[in-house]
């Protein structure tokens, strides 16, 4: 049954096409105010098109409920509001901000209704005063549905306790992501889709032995990024649902909270590739020294990863390539290795190497001749340079220290 008197219903029906024609402008106005006044929405790592589509859909649902009266449109609007509440809870948007956004939608709707009424042939219409109460009753009901969905999602997230999360994480690492039944139950438990773009992250303890990442799931959720975290040996392990987030964005977010070495995999599609992603992320993390606080992708550390996964070959490569350099007294060994690193980093330019080492070019030339003599390799040989670069990576040396002549 329609909540308005027949003449009010007829007036709304007359204004309906004009009101629906305002939908795009209403969406623009609401987004402009929302992004200006609500930091939580500005910080959401979702594409602007997605936020706009959600805003437009909610406004349209409210308009159709208003125009048609309290009918099936109201039920659809409530269902949509509950879905928004669940989504915003998962993204870490405060409930207060979500409710303010919905109340802003009610304000924008009422202002649009007044505007189209003033522009119509009847001008300002006192019949619309009867509609005002319906606008705000509808808005209040939507807000209640948002809060209901939000709290349902919070309870669901709290229910996925640590033991259950660890069980899911272990299954993903061990290759169960190829089992559709496991993926379905894991996705439901975590309220997190595991069939899209994923990345793995592995964080090793910092120099003080403390975890490298402090509450990473919460830190990512505040930016709208869903993830599951647990442990594997001495490492923190996480799988992150990227959605529309770029891999570089994830690295930047983790860098903000990293206090030790962190490695991330490349982007993989679906839970079936999660085990391989974990192994790549762990390899990337273990190529970093213990005191390092960087977040690195496996693609940044491919040579180091290759050497770390073949310790016998790495040891032989170092011995064969650097030869007698490693048998020299420590002080001379350090000077020559620093010089070799600077020379290779300067693309074989003794002048630029001398600038990097703060010494004279002739000093660098003398040291380079000594390196050729001790290793039995030629500086002009491209293969020797390649072997030296790999061998220096195999020693785990950092950037050369600067020395005076």
What does this structure look like?
There is one protein chain. This protein has 405 residues and is an alpha+beta fold. The chain folds into three domains: 6-159, Globin-like; 162-301, Alpha-Beta Plaits; 311-394, PucR C-terminal helix-turn-helix domain (Arc Repressor Mutant, subunit A). It contains 18 helices and six strands. Strands 1, 2, 3, 4, 5 and 6 form a six-stranded mixed sheet that branches. A hairpin with a 2-residue loop joins strand 2 (226-232) and strand 3 (235-241). Helix 5 crosses helix 7 (129-159). The model is unreliable at 398-405 (pLDDT under 50).
State the shape: elongated
Oligomer designation: single chain
User: Spans with pLDDT under 50 lasting ≥5 residues?
Assistant: 398-405
Provide mean pLDDT, rounded: 85
Labels describing this entry:
single chain, 405 residues, alpha+beta, Globin-like, Alpha-Beta Plaits, Arc Repressor Mutant, subunit A, 3 domains, 6-stranded mixed sheet, 18 helices, 6 strands, disordered C terminus
Layout of secondary structure:
Layout lengths: L5 H16 L1 H15 L1 H4 L5 H21 L3 H19 L4 H25 L9 H31 L2 H12 L6 H11 L6 E7 L12 H6 L4 E7 L2 E7 L5 H11 L4 E3 L3 E2 L4 H13 L8 E3 L4 H7 L2 H12 L7 H16 L4 H8 L3 H15 L6 H13 L11
Parallel strand pairs: 4-6
Antiparallel strand pairs: 1-3, 1-4, 1-5, 2-3
Quick take:
The protein has 405 residues and is of the alpha+beta class.
